[in-house]
Write a structure and sequence with these properties.
Number of helices: 4
Order of helices and strands: EHEEEHEHEEEEEEEEEEEEEEEEEEH
Largest sheet: 7 strands, parallel
Low-confidence stretches: 206-216
Mean pLDDT: 91
Number of strands: 23
Strand order of the largest sheet: 6-9-12-15-18-21-23
Shape: elongated
């Protein structure tokens, strides 16, 4: 059993705490934040300990970074750097009901929700959040990407860094997403992107794109 604190008291932190209460692999000790943001000693029914106190205390525990919904890329990366700088293990959390296939590599600091499916021979980088959905075979991702509920990635896709893939979006097989690509909810991506590109479903096709799409 691994002793763990969750960095972040936001919705993501609350959700992971619910999961951990039912997960025998972990002993959830509480939450942590930078001391300036600790305006109480409790969060979601668990102790809230200033991060500075944890770093001085030391001990055999790890931290899961639950920063991610607001300013996900920059804030999440900054928190990762603070945790590792203080020589505290940055943990990956994979829900016990996530479906991870053979020969899949997953980096540090990731969060993978239940109802997530990752097929064979994928390489998932660091600090990705996979919030449910399917990632096809031989997909390679960089770092700090977000995959929303119901999103579908076909096989042989490359996702660079800092990409956001919204709910029910579908990425066609073989596509390359450049860094900082934003894919809106229910969007079908059938071509490679360039950095900072923002994609959304055509308004004329809103009825078609208002539900999960499947690959060609």
């Amino acid at each position: 059993m691994t002793d763990v604190y969750l960095f972040g008291t936001n919705r993501l932190g609350r959700q992971i705490s619910f999961y951990m209460k039912e997960d025998a692999r972990y002993n959830l000790l509480g939450f942590t934040l930078s001391g300036q943001y600790c305006d109480s000693k409790e969060a979601h029914g668990l102790p809230l300990v200033p991060f500075e106190e944890l770093s001085e205390r030391g001990g055999d525990f790890g931290i899961i970074n639950c920063v991610g919904y607001s300013k996900a890329f920059s804030n999440r990366q900054q928190v990762d750097e603070v945790i590792t700088k203080n020589s505290i293990p940055l943990l990956t959390y994979i829900h016990k009901d996530a479906d991870i296939d053979y020969d899949v590599e997953i980096g540090i600091g990731c969060i993978i929700f239940k109802r997530s499916h990752i097929l064979e021979c994928c390489k998932i980088g660091n600090s990705n959040i996979i919030q449910g959905g399917a990632i096809g075979h031989d997909v390679v991702t960089g770092n700090y990407n977000f995959f929303g509920y119901g999103s579908v990635c076909g096989g042989n896709i490359t996702v660079a860094d800092y990409c956001f893939i919204g709910e029910n979006a579908t990425i066609k097989t073989g596509i390359q997403l450049a860094s900082y690509t934003t894919v809106g909810a229910a969007t079908y991506v059938k071509g490679n992107t360039v950095e900072y590109e923002i994609l959304s479903p055509p308004k004329s096709d809103s009825r078609k794109y208002g539900r999960p799409l499947f690959l060609d």
